[in-house]
Design brief:
elongated, alpha+beta, 8 strands, 3-stranded antiparallel sheet, 31% helix, 177 residues
Length: 177
């Protein structure tokens, strides 16, 4: 019965008034190496080229000084920016002329920078509240593209959710799929 309805709907669609076809073709994106994320990405996991978002050393030093002046662990734009640029911050802190942080901030910042994983889960829910597809919690490395196959679905075909999780702050992640 279901196939008959699909065929009828398809046949009715073909019998309607003729419409101009509209096709959108995405522009290809260049594959880039992003050193602060430690991954290559392109397409659905595109991250801009490093020169568009590398943070200059004086600005990085100013952010470290700003963070050091706040209570340890407090949320701030300066801390969020440092965590987004984690690779650059790690390299800068390893240099002998890096701004000195208090022992408490040094430990807290290193603890935050050591967080390299996130958990991702997804549910597709229709307009009636029925779960149509579900991806259980999956561990993902930050900054690395991952292909996730969703087989728990009643949509008639398997789905996938491919993308990259990027840390954009102390309490915020960004997922591009």
């Amino acid at each position: 019965m279901k196939r008959a309805l699909v065929f009828v709907a398809f046949a009715l669609g073909c019998a309607g008034p003729e419409r101009a076809a509209r096709v959108t073709v995405p522009r290809p994106t260049a594959v880039v190496q992003t050193p602060h994320l430690g991954c290559q990405s392109g397409g659905c996991a595109y991250v801009p080229a490093p020169e568009t978002h590398d943070i200059p050393k004086p600005q990085l030093d100013a952010l470290l000084v700003q963070v050091n002046a706040t209570p340890v662990g407090s949320d701030s734009l300066a801390l969020d920016t440092l965590l987004f640029h984690d690779g650059e911050v790690r390299r800068r802190l390893a240099e002998p002329d890096a701004p000195a942080l208090s022992p408490a901030w040094d430990a807290a910042l290193k603890r935050e920078l050591d967080k390299r994983w996130a958990t991702f889960a997804m549910r597709v829910v229709d307009d009636r509240g029925r779960v149509r597809a579900e991806l259980p919690e999956t561990r993902m490395a930050l900054g690395a593209k991952k292909h996730l196959d969703i087989t728990d679905t009643d949509l008639g075909t398997p789905m996938n959710a491919n993308g990259t999780v990027v840390r954009v702050g102390q309490n915020h992640l960004w997922y591009r799929m």
